[in-house]
């Protein structure tokens, strides 16, 4: 890697990271509450697959479109300033919409507009924060810190449904928007206290946005691990995350439309995800990342099928818990491989494509699954989606490109006996100037059912 592109992690990186994670956790908590309540509102008020599909489109499509430029901006501008500006914009838009609703404008399209505006901001904020984190954390702490942050997110996911249910039941939807504004402001203030090293690329740029986007795509297509992982990511969001948006609708139609049922649905998922995060940060921290990704991928498919076969609500909750357990063993190794493989100066551009896939695959899938849910049962859709996932992933592994990616990932696996080789990669897989990177914030978490995280559209990455 060139001297101008080297990332000098601050000596006080632990304190720096603690401040950053604290701010992101508070902000994520507010966002989770908003998304739970909005998803429940749409589900319970309409009990329509089409309405839920419209919510998914509003939550993800704007982010996917804006992410095309958000990642490039993250590589060309000061990432800290850009992330703070995006958060402020989201908070301001949310406040305006909350005031409109207070004056009696509470139609469904207003709710969807609020979700869409927030998604636009997330299209800039998410890849920016993802690209900024590797500047804060030493490379040899990747898997452990990813698992720790996944656990933090899981704890927040455990608390958010209970808080969301209480606010929604006693105060309605409007106060939720005000709460999100407050948490966003706290997140921005704490982010302002974080020291973020500036890459030379952020101050010296000689290429156009279009050239940067083309360069990012070229980088993805010429690196087998990155290309294959992005394909697997797209498959999961199309075939498991998209239909998971319909699980609250399944509960409302088949088991009851009481708010506590939807809250428990999210809580059991979050408990599973929290336990999975603990496992990744401890006993799974040194395991082969690609192997963890494959096990988790098949786990997603299996438990999606079993959710469709669940005979009663409590068995369904059990399968949802198991589904949540699979999230950290997928998302943490996924981001670790990406961050190890991609050179820092290109993080923004490459992560923007991750955001694009996440944001566009889900609404594309819901355009099909949503209307179908008004024709056939959600249970049957889950069985079909899980079976399709197993078949497609198996084919992807057996293809030459899949075998090449798996072989490259094995070669890039660090020697467990050497502490300073944690982030080495084979010369035929990534450029010799590659340097390790850090963890991934809320935006990368792969999640869906209520659109709560991960990645929530503004938060990256929980699969569900």
TrEMBL record:
It is a multi-pass membrane protein. This is DHA3 family macrolide efflux protein-like MFS transporter. It comes from Microlunatus parietis. GO terms for molecular function: transmembrane transporter activity. It holds the Pfam family MFS_1. One of its GO terms (cellular component) is plasma membrane. The chain crosses the membrane at residues 17-38, 50-74, 81-102, 108-133, 154-178, 184-204, 225-248, 260-285, 292-310, 316-338, 350-370, 376-399. PANTHER family: INTEGRAL MEMBRANE EFFLUX PROTEIN-RELATED, MAJOR FACILITATOR SUPERFAMILY ASSOCIATED DOMAIN-CONTAINING PROTEIN.
